[in-house]
Amino acid sequence: MTALLLLPLLLPFALPALARRALDRLAPVAALWAVTACAVVLAGCSLGALGVLLLTGLLKLPLFAALGELIHPLRTASDLVVLPAAAVSVGALAVCASTLARSVLRQARAFRVARTEAGRGPAAGDLCVVDSVRPDAYALPGRPHRIVVTTAMLRCLDGPEREALFAHERAHNEGGHHYFLAAAELAAHCHPALRAVRESIRLAAERAADEAAAARVGDRRLIARAIARAALAAQDDHSERPAFAAAATAGPVPQRVRALLTGGRAPRRAGRPIAALLLVCAAVSCVASVAGLADVHHRVEVAQGDQSP
Amino acid sequence: MTDARDARRPAGELEASVMAALWAAGTPRTPGQVQLGLGGGLARTTVTTILTRLHDKGVVDRRRQGRGYAYFPVQDAQGLTARRMHTELDRDSDRETVLARFVAQLGPDDERILRDLLEPGDQ
To answer: Which of B19, B23, B81 to mutate to test the interface with A (most CBs of A within 10 A)?
Structure first.
């Protein structure tokens, strides 16, 4: 039984590699949906598994056994396994709950401030310009959707490139990408292995917006040029920052530029197996946690004397 | 981008484009100069109409230049609040988790890869 509950805790470790492949082989929007859904299911199941382990351990304690109206001792694997597992679960759940709560509160507050300020006063369409020497731009979803762009970003792009940038940010808002990013963020706080998946989801959202923008302005090369120019300008600005540890692969920006320049539609081979693998991953995780829960439920009923073993 | 495409775009998008061109210029611009800054596609009369509308809204100001006006963005309370919003968001080191940013920080090799990718033609 305990072994079955380990499965939802271990499966997330397989997801980062799967997510990267899904991004290579599926259309960006499909990858965004598939990877986000899988990450949310795996996060939920791993929390569920921790909860069941915790419950089992608690029912071993006389106080909780009495509260649960157990008349027989709960039959489980050795206490040497169950009690430490429960103790670890308590710790893990406590850490998850605190980081989740902190992240939700902080981001909700920042978001609320941004919305109030952007909604104040007249605006030129959906554009909100910030006078800043740092090139930066982001989509600010809400009613109405806004695009926030710094003056430095506007100045490092020419007219058509600015249109490309706006098309990209509008695609984020219209695609509701902030829901995916929020889901990725929550999942990342539920299981450490899902932190790497958050990066994949973020890249999938950017790729989806890039493709939508390319379709809108009708020029893939223009989008690629705008992204590259903006990234290089932002980089010049950050030159005093210490460089990150060398990465094995190119970062998200070159990947996006390359995908735009190489036509995008080419690597759609073997998309189905990777989608199937993601589905299997989510399904196995669900089945394992539900089966684990059902097993514990059965044992509790036996211990309560409602059922014979 | 063609005229037909621009004619179908919502007014808000055109206003955003014109406003962006004014901010990018940094100095007062006549409708003709704004039209050039947009990289073509919009008729000059359209640009003039949009600039007048932006002026009515109070987001741009203008001054006489020759027979027409030169327009520039108003750095008013709205600009200040936007800046405050920006610093508020900046305080969160992980704000890109909910906000989709246009470009992420480049890694050590990314700059070279990017320049290589863009090499043919436009650098």
So the answer is: B23
Range of the domain at A28: 2-241+249-263+270-303
A253 to B78: CB separation less than 8 angstroms, yes or no: no
Say what the pTM is: 0.85
Go through chain B and tell me how many residues it has.
123
Tell whether A138 is within 8 A of chain B (Cβ): yes
Instruction: Report the distance separating Cα A176 and Cα A208, nearest Å.
Output: 11
Q: In angstroms, rounded to a whole number, what is the distance separating the alpha carbons of residues A147 and A141?
A: 8
Residue B65 distance to chain A (closest CA, Å): 23
Q: Which of A132, A178, A218 comes nearest B86 by C-beta?
A: A132
Report A:109-128 residues touching B (Cβ under 8 A).
110-111, 113-114, 117-118, 120-128
In tens, the pLDDT along A176-225 reads: 998 998 899 899 999 999 999 998 998 999 999 999 999 998 889 999 99
Domain count, chain B: 1
d(CA A273, CA A281): 12
The yes-or-no verdict on residue B105 having pLDDT over 90 is no
Q: What is the mean pLDDT of chain B?
A: 76
Taken in order A190, A196, A202, A204, the sign of the CA dihedral is negative
| CA B58 – CA A122 distance, rounded (Å) | 7
- CATH number assigned to the domain comprising residue B3: 1.10.10.10
ipTM over 0.90: no
The domain tally of chain A equals 1
